[in-house]
Amino acid sequence: MKKIINDPATVVAEALHGLAVAHPERLRVTTDPAVIVRTDAPVAGKVAVISGGGSGHEPLHGGFVGSGMLDAACPGAVFTSPTPDQVQAAVTATDAGAGALLLVKNYTGDVLNFETAAELAEATGTPVRSVLIDDDVAVADSTFTAGRRGVGGTLLLEKIVGAAAERGTDLDGCARLAASVVAGVRSMGVALTAPTVPHVGEPSFTLGADEMEIGIGIHGEPGRARVPLEDADRLVARLVDAIVSDLPFVAGDRVILFTNSMGGTPLLELYLAHGIAERLLAERGIEVARRLVGPYVTSLEMQGMSLTLLRADDQLLDLWDAPVCTPALRWGM
Amino acid sequence: MKKIINDPATVVAEALHGLAVAHPERLRVTTDPAVIVRTDAPVAGKVAVISGGGSGHEPLHGGFVGSGMLDAACPGAVFTSPTPDQVQAAVTATDAGAGALLLVKNYTGDVLNFETAAELAEATGTPVRSVLIDDDVAVADSTFTAGRRGVGGTLLLEKIVGAAAERGTDLDGCARLAASVVAGVRSMGVALTAPTVPHVGEPSFTLGADEMEIGIGIHGEPGRARVPLEDADRLVARLVDAIVSDLPFVAGDRVILFTNSMGGTPLLELYLAHGIAERLLAERGIEVARRLVGPYVTSLEMQGMSLTLLRADDQLLDLWDAPVCTPALRWGM
């Protein structure tokens, strides 16, 4: 295992320390339990927007803590759900009296632990609403999931709901908005190589030298098919076809297109793939109104990519454009 | 070779197309010769700041084209110098009468081709100044280089000089500023794995399963030593020691610390390493006044990292903080 670490047991804690010293003006990190909190939380009168999940997907979620996006993120062990006490501590640290919205990727452990935390927080008087994100069209059920998995769409959800909360939208309004984003967002990914979890020490799965996994999960869960390597045109067409036909997206739709690297795929290849995706969408009459390209929802050093499409009206585009100031996403301020 | 591409011969052109469609509000891409130009160039009265180099180091340089940083970038083939006609076309596209400053990484091919382009541009009446960046302390001479290589410090140079040019600093002032940045910046990197150049089809070098290359170049050029894998504390101490003792940086210095992923090293590990670097610098009495952490000066999918330190006075920090709006670096607007 080739990694820049000291001890698999302390990787997440040490990385969180590094995140904290790198971004002291935007976030602070508490330990025991581990929570990443924006420096100015709780923000008076504002709904607290909270997410979290296993570590190893950075910058998701900790890199999105800051003004205009998340109030707090709960980092679990690598590829492991955060515990209820982490989520409860996040609510306590950010509760400004307007309640908390939990954005939960659909994995069984996450769902259970966020649910437990929501009950604990409600019992202490904080109104809590939860929204599940399950944007991965690849498979109906998966290794760690009943129903569809939550993947790249999570970033779009966090940005848009974060912007609404920053503008003063109340808890019910934020929850409704989140549900509308979830209803209109779809993703699918592909892996060329497997990631290695530090405390496991060997690759999460085995792929032949000329194979790729279509519909991969962000923890290396199996996708739709293991197929021979193919060129970028065909590969991107596979992803676009699966995503577009699922919602379905239709001619005349305006979308936000998010072309995501799983970590190990370099920008040179990612931009190449992005150009193909834009062409294929234009051919279908789907208008790409905004785009994001980069490694944002990753799976450690896994080579691969995903595409995410969100059908977006003027309101969603306006919230997407709103100022954001986080370690990984920043504009307008 | 596992890559998301169509044909090794068209990778760069296709990636540039993707870059252009992803960022239409910030840059445009010309072909034949290939140049990435900020949309509003030439900017009246402004010195044109131009850089370039082989592709495969993205987001360097094309991702730094935009307001407050580069006016144009010249992307060569993968790991190959841009041609003189690319650089000349970049000067022509951005010349607003105030002259052009060429920021050149110290590789023999780049130096020659930028020099030829500078002569051609001067012959047509555009004043041109060139500044060499050679911040890599690892080795005195290298595979493609007489003298030291230009690596991560290039980003800091482009940001700071770009900010000065945006504020109206004249050509001589920009050149003096660039020279002062080059005088105060030092870097060193390490590789855990080798990158694969698309048109070569196999890894650029061979590293054993338990080996790493200390002082690696961004094209996989040999460094100081090939050593057994070691933990992050020792590895980061090696880099910090080499960099600090070179300038040398001393107690009381204020610095910008740039912790860079070579591409394949995930943020989890990079933040871990960054935290160690900050601690080691604090122990030496060196104040980290600003920091940047991420994959910015990469070597395709190579796993590894580099550290860059720039001694920074109030003027340099102010220029670092100045607004920038590029695909890969954005703040204050």
From TrEMBL, chains A, B:
One of its GO terms (biological process) is glycerol catabolic process. Residues 7-331 form the DhaK domain. Keywords: ATP-binding, Kinase, Nucleotide-binding, Transferase. One of its GO terms (molecular function) is ATP binding. Pfam families: Dak1. GO terms for cellular component: cytosol. InterPro entries: DhaK_1, DhaK_dom, Dihydroxyacetone_Kinase. This is Dihydroxyacetone kinase DhaK subunit. It comes from Tamaricihabitans halophyticus.
